[in-house]
UniProtKB/TrEMBL annotation:
InterPro entries: MFS (IPR011701), MFS_dom (IPR020846), MFS_sugar_transport-like (IPR005828), MFS_trans_sf (IPR036259). CDD domains: MFS_ShiA_like (cd17369). It is found in: Cell membrane. It comes from Raineyella fluvialis. This is Putative proline/betaine transporter.
Length: 425
């Protein structure tokens, strides 16, 4: 359990760093880094810088996956944490367009690429450390801990911006928005101190003892396991799209289109993140008895079913109903899938290519799904002036996930759970 908690703390720091960019892209960057653009264009450009971070994630998955399967999970996790923290602090110190002109958005984009590269290697390593240290028959509950880092990091990032947003607009736009980025330095020190105490994964040690370490694990993964890699990408796509629309696009939509005050929109996201964090381990635990694919499918179906009811609540313009809508999607519908993402995706692959296969499949999904989801949703609404098209877009990606998880190898339900009780590494 110590390793699971250490994975949770590490991924929380990583995702805090990654997600504060999404909130800032919605609230700050259009004004400070793209001031010459129209409001719609500025928002599109801001969300585009959010999206480019995802372009580097597959590269991070390949590089860190290769070395994670070659030299160990733990070393890669130390590097990703340090790299992510440095990039985030530098964003908090970055001059704006008014100070250095076009160099400001260029540097912002470069630092976002560094963030994406680092988080591309973080997820796979943290997940494997938790899953591979788990006792037999408990990989679901242990594997849910690093997954909890995503909503917990979202909650911390939203909470930090919620406090900063209480400042008058001139102070918020001058220095207040920088504070959440600079806090990352302290969080990284805490995360690093904890991460350095954990032992290397027993599965990696077993692969090394058995002389099963691959010279080119990424090549082996693509050659023999390309189908699961692609199915993992399709399985995750709905979860990624809905998550980033909730924490980025709908914050902007709620405050600018339907008139919900900025602070109250952020508060709604914070409540949803807290509920999600508590729900993830529940579904991780259930997956040890029901089967991981079964629980994930439940989540994919619930996400699709939640879209239009949530949009109706958001469009009411009522702050409490906005909170209920975000909670419905992010805090209730998503956790069955998100809570079992780590153990489901990682255990599809043999231990000698597990870091590479899981990381690449997961990060490929980031490009085709959440990378430009806020940009796409903004463009759809800008073209149609209706949320219906945005809702249809969300339902389509949910359908892709339902089909993909249905095609993942292995049995379902009780038989799947019985086999899980026999997994060692």
């Amino acid at each position: 359990m110590t390793v699971a908690v250490a994975s949770l703390i590490g991924t929380t720091v990583e995702y805090y760093d990654f997600f504060i960019f999404g909130t800032a892209a919605a609230l700050v960057f259009p004004k400070l880094f793209f001031p010459a653009a129209t409001p719609l264009t500025g928002t599109l450009l801001s969300f585009a810088t959010l999206g480019v971070g995802f372009l580097a994630r597959p590269l991070g998955g390949v590089v860190f996956g290769h070395f994670g399967d070659r030299v160990g999970r733990k070393k890669m996790l130390v590097i990703t944490l340090l790299g992510m923290g440095l990039a985030t602090v530098l964003i908090g110190l970055l001059p704006t367009y008014a100070a250095i002109g076009v160099a400001a958005p260029v540097l912002l984009t470069v630092l976002r690429l560094v963030q994406g590269f680092m988080v591309g290697g973080e997820w796979g390593g943290a997940t494997l450390m938790a899953v591979e240290h788990a006792p037999v028959g408990r990989k679901g509950i242990f594997g849910s801990f690093p997954q909890m880092g995503a909503p917990l990091g979202t909650g911390l990032a939203t909470g930090a911006f919620l406090v900063a947003a209480l400042l008058p607009d001139d102070q918020f736009l001058t220095w207040g928005w920088r504070v959440p980025f600079l806090i990352s330095a302290l969080l990284v020190v805490i995360g690093l101190a904890i991460r350095l105490t954990v032992e290397e994964s027993p599965a990696f040690q077993a692969a090394r003892d058995e002389d099963a370490v691959q010279a080119l694990p990424i090549a082996t993964a693509f050659r023999y396991h390309w189908k699961p890699i692609l199915l993992i990408a399709g399985t995750f796509v709905s979860q990624g799209v809905l998550a980033y629309l909730c924490m980025s696009y709908f914050i902007t939509y709620g405050s600018k289109v339907v008139g919900i005050p900025r602070v109250e929109a952020l508060a709604g996201m914070l409540v949803a993140a807290v509920i999600a964090t508590l729900a993830y381990p529940v579904f991780g635990w259930l997956s040890d008895y029901w089967g991981r694919k079964t629980v994930y499918l439940l989540g994919a179906v619930l996400m699709g079913a939640s879209v239009f009811p949530a949009l109706a609540l958001i469009n009411s313009g009522n702050s409490l109903l906005f909170m209920l809508a975000i909670t419905l999607m992010f805090g209730i519908a998503m956790p069955p899938a998100a809570g079992v993402t780590g153990p489901l995706f990682s255990m599809v692959f043999p231990k000698e290519v597990r870091y590479s296969g899981a990381s690449v499949g997961y990060t490929i999904s980031q490009i085709v799904g959440p990378a430009f989801a806020p940009t796409i949703a903004t463009a759809i609404f800008g073209a149609t002036h209706s949320s219906t098209g945005v809702g249809l877009y969300m339902v389509v990606v949910c359908a892709i996930s339902i089909l993909s998880v249905a095609l993942l190898p292995g049995p379902w339900g009780r038989r799947e759970a019985e086999l899980q009780q026999q997994e060692v590494h």
